[in-house]
Write a structure and sequence with these properties.
The chain is an all-beta fold and 389 residues long. 2% of the residues lie in helices and 54% in strands.
């Protein structure tokens, strides 16, 4: 396997006149950047290199790295053994950034190793800060016929207008680019590393590269957060067609040439379906009521709250609708629920009932609970409330 990353070499030694009147000459060391093989770009902008410094590139136990190295990421090895004793110094030196160009005076990091085996190469791993490179995930989706959703997971690579000279020099040589979505290698898998090959990356660009694509069947599900909202909200749900696992992915949904805006960033995972809020539905009518009764002879739970929720489908098509109600907890005594129809699910601190309604059909949900408290501020938003104030 080829070595990863950027290789920084000490170049030829140039002889230049130092004092013409005496004919003396002085050796001036000129450093240069060779063609890199591979580099890793993390989502936070950190770029990581694995470098090989050949034996003839080490002068007086010293070699160079870019000035913007993150020192806590620097690891040096020789013949498979870590070198833990070394010193670093930021200096200015003559460096050839591109083949055929004149040397430039560049700030570099000089690394000196007191004890080193002569003639043997060094393996150096390091990250650099302020590289001018960042990338992130984009989820591009398009509504197709027969309730199909075309999906593409993209990498959006952004470069700053003014890249550091060392970064521009590296990118101009078209190295192999690896995108890494996680900084925890203990938890990494193949879904967090993306090999892009050797794309052309230049300053002041935004480059989109496809990582995965797939097609999945979607459905519209209406969710009514019954105690807090007047109308149900429409969600687009679909199985995830990707193998990649990633968080903070920005989705875009295109329908008939128009992007549905306002979609929030999400986490994608092969075992988690897409669930996008796309707006409220006015053609589903709702009504909610509560009656609170007091029973003084019940010492711990003297109040009974009887709730009723009505949903009527006024659309001309069958719909899937979910009614979500928060669980009411007691402070000193546990609330006791009484259901005529038990919840279909209990996600977190909520209860969820699922219905499938034909056009004009109505769903009626009713239940009661015994509680130590009489008042609930949310009841002020109900269509009918009795005995709770």
């Amino acid at each position: 396997m080829k070595n990863l990353g950027v290789i920084l070499l000490l170049s030829l030694v140039f002889l230049m006149p130092c004092a013409a009147q005496t004919g003396d000459t002085e050796e001036i060391i000129v450093y240069r950047l060779p063609e890199p093989e591979r580099l890793y770009i993390y989502r936070n902008g950190m770029v990581v290199y694995n470098a090989i410094i050949p034996g003839n590139g080490i002068v007086n136990n010293t070699f160079i790295l870019p000035e913007n190295v993150q020192l806590d990421s620097l690891a040096i090895s020789q013949a498979g053994r870590r070198i833990l004793s070394y010193s670093t110094e930021t200096v200015e030196a003559l460096v050839v950034l591109r083949r055929g160009e004149r040397p430039n005076l560049v700030r570099i990091l000089q690394v000196h190793i007191p004890e080193i085996a002569s003639g043997a190469p060094l393996e150096v791993k390091y990250g650099i800060r302020n590289s001018g490179l960042t990338w992130d995930f984009i989820l591009d989706m398009e509504i197709k016929e027969q309730n199909q959703l075309s999906c593409a997971l993209l990498a959006a690579i952004k470069t700053e207008r003014e890249l550091p000279d060392t970064t521009k020099s590296i990118l101009s040589k078209r190295p192999e680019i690896i995108l890494a979505s996680s900084q925890n290698i203990l938890l990494d898998n193949t879904g967090s590393i993306f090999n892009l090959g050797r794309p052309l990356i230049e300053a002041n660009r935004r480059i989109l590269i496809k990582l995965e694509e797939g097609e999945t069947a979607y459905s519209l599900v209406y969710l009514w957060d019954a105690n807090r909202r007047e109308r149900p909200s429409a969600y687009l749900r679909a199985p995830t067609p990707f193998k990649t696992m990633a968080d903070r992915v920005q989705p875009y949904l295109n329908s008939s040439g128009i992007n549905i805006t306002g979609l929030s960033a999400l986490t994608i995972s092969p075992d988690r379906p897409f669930d996008f809020y796309i707006g409220d539905q006015p053609n589903i009518s709702t009504r909610k009521s509560v009656v609170t009764a007091e029973y003084p002879d019940r010492v711990n739970l003297p109040f009974t709250h009887s709730l009723e929720y009505n949903v009527t489908n006024q659309l001309n098509q069958r719909i899937a609708i979910e009614i979500s109600v928060p669980v009411t907890y007691g402070v000193k005594h546990r609330t006791e629920y009484h259901f005529t129809q038990a919840p279909d699910d209990r996600p977190g601190d909520r209860m969820l009932w699922r219905y499938n309604l034909a056009p004009g059909e109505r769903a009626l949900l009713s239940f009661s609970f015994d509680s130590e408290t009489k008042d609930n501020p949310l009841y002020s938003q109900f269509d009918y409330s009795e005995g709770g104030r």
